[in-house]
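Appendix B, record 7
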Amino acid sequence: MRKKLGTLGRKLAEFGATNLEGEIDPHHMHAFERRKAELHEHITQLQKEVAALKAEREATKRHIPFNELPEEDRFARLSTQSKHFIDTIKMIAYRAETAMALTLREKMARYDDAPSLLRALYSTDADLLPNPQEKTLTVRLHPLANDSSDAVVRYLCAELNTTKTLFPGTDLRLIYESVSSQNP
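Structure tokens (predicted):
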């Protein structure tokens, strides 16, 4: 439908921009009338197609009841064990985020900004630098929007480094660094 509406808009603009230029003689007038008639016919056809598409869209159900779905398109519910497992993962992630927010709040002037700072931190770029000889994996975080956020992130990095956490499935110790301009 968008494609048809775009074509219709272009044809309407072309129809409006088509003018009789030059002298008014029968040859130019005949060509002008033929061109305008062709455009008008094409516009009328496009308007009918758009109207038919709109009617089809309005007739289409917005929601399909589960029992009307074909068998191959129905989704399977999670087993109880799978649901418990996923809920456990969500709970662990929530607790980890809450702990990080509490750590950030130790250095923040406004306590309520910790969750938004964490969201910004999660979406920022980072470099991963493995060093198998020293058995470390350095996570180098890129600067955030302002220096105060970078200072809080540097504090969080220092706190996380004290845990000496190993990257799962390896013997590489995680080291967090901030690449901000005012690194201590």
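Remarks on this record: The longest strand covers residues 126-131. The chain is about 55% helix and 10% strand.
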